[in-house]
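Can you give me the bound-state structure? Components:
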Amino acid sequence: MSVDIDPRRRLALAEKVLGAAEQAGATEAEVLVLADDSALTRFANSEIHQNVAETSATVNLRFVLGRRVGVATTGRTDNDGLAALVEQAHAIARVVEELEDWSGLPEPGPVTDLPAAWSEATAAASPESRAEGVRAVIAAADAAGSIAYGSFATGAETLAIANSKGISAVQRRTSAQLLTVSMAPNGGTGYAEAVSVDVGRIDPAAIGREAAEKARATQHPVAVDAGEWPVVLEEYAVVDVLDMLGYLGFSALAVQEERSFYEPGRRIGSDLVTIVDDPSDPDGMPMAFDYEGVPKERISLVDHGICRDVVYDAQTAARAGRASTGHGLPAPNAYGPLPLNMVMSAGSSSRDELIGGLDRGLLVTRFHYTNPVHPKLCVITGMTRDGTFLVEGGKVVGPVRNLRFTQSYLDALAGVVAVGRERRTLRGELGAVVVPAVRIDGWSFTGTTEH
Amino acid sequence: MGTFGWDDEGVAAQAVPLVKDGIFVGYLSSRETAPRIGRQSGGAMRADGWNRIPLIRMTNINLQPVPGMSLDEIVADTDDGLYLASNRSWSIDDRRLNFQFATEVAYEITGGKKGRLLRNPTYTGITYEFWRSCDAVGDERSYVMLGTPNCGKGEPSQTGHVGHAVPGARFTDVQVGVGNG
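Here's the bound-state model for the whole set.
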């Protein structure tokens, strides 16, 4: 059964619940309706073994009584369910403590329509069309003598929001992601991924070939010592750098709680490093407004290595005496605002030039299981995975076993000496990111493993 | 914290030995995977909601106490070492071999007594080498139930409750690190 993701009707639902909350005595109220129609085809051992589809609609209500804020969510959109939602949020608002610095819900702003956020092809994707894509990935693995694993996901969502200050906005978005791990005999593994608003822009055969060729190339890896190595990080690894910076430092809440590395004007990267949060970049996953209904602004986070700004939601903006940048998350939100559309500027180097600049170093495909060791210094530990290679004299000489690193991502940005001219759109922990590969003059590997 | 009556395939919760006297003896398993190794499901298939496919995932993975010494007595029995407490960061490779954990605090142990407090401690190693180096496990007096409510697994990610009942233990020749900041 398909869920109703019609924008007009979803916004009407938000308005209806808003009216009920106001009638129930809310001094302010906000209703967020998220309707989602998504599916995922999963494959392992070179065959499809799951096809799952989910249709859901959730209604999230922020019910305000003065400075007391109650939040409740329901998956029911019938009259009884919505009445219960209002009653529950009201009941919570009556008993929670007052927020001393409650700044009120945000005011409406001009919302720009972003047609680039929607693809009819993605919205119409079927189990058969995803299976065709998976078939191409598996065919590439078969041709290379490897085994394919992965998933192909497609989805469409409608986000409607209405609040008592006059916000009444709706947007619809689609997304598609194909990822695969290819496993070859003798310890070879390779990874490839593609993400797009438009499933038609994903080339499954190319993704399959990339992973399978890398799996073949990583067979019989040899051990190298841990230590400081120059590296080329492929785009899949750079995603993690941006993710961690966004999570740990580019949120106004992290700055206000003094747990961020961010200081205005502080140099954290080389001149080659420019990062923005750009919700309208058509290469990413465009988003017109945030989960508070505030239009999303393009924010310069790092400009040629210099910290320029962080992202704000309504509450953190009020504390800072400025306007929200449109980076709020659904209430209740302990994380604060986050950059969900990070884009790193391309450089001028081809892939061969990036690798060619390594006299003796490592080429890293991606990272695995990274976690902060020291959040404020942005020291992260994690492993390499699915394609780590020794480079000598600017040439890839062969695969090496995976390594553990313990590395300040700030020091890594400062050590960026070359940036790729091509970029990929990939999915990070905070959303889609657009990233190039980079060469960094030093990366601290602190341990080894057996594969 | 990882306690339940039946898993999401209807298999009754049960205690499954994983390592016995230092020897690997068992697996977490499901109805699909257990027959492949000639066993019956150990009941570890759980989903984080009605609309998610169950995964084999940790339940309560416990380190059994060993009669003899309490954790305090293990400290008193240690001439030169570190006392590490309260996990705050974790990472392990895709074959669960190379791990690194950071803890909130560490104290030097000298002559059986806890002394100087150390900043930003970490410890790292290869899983089976680390566990082979275990030379003392606390008894029931030090046995505490810990765990986490937000263990992540799967793609799309699912969150699970996991329990770890543990008495505290001593390991030798562990690579450790401390940092500034």
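A couple of observations. The helical segments of chain B are 71-76, 127-132. Chain B has a mean pLDDT of 94.
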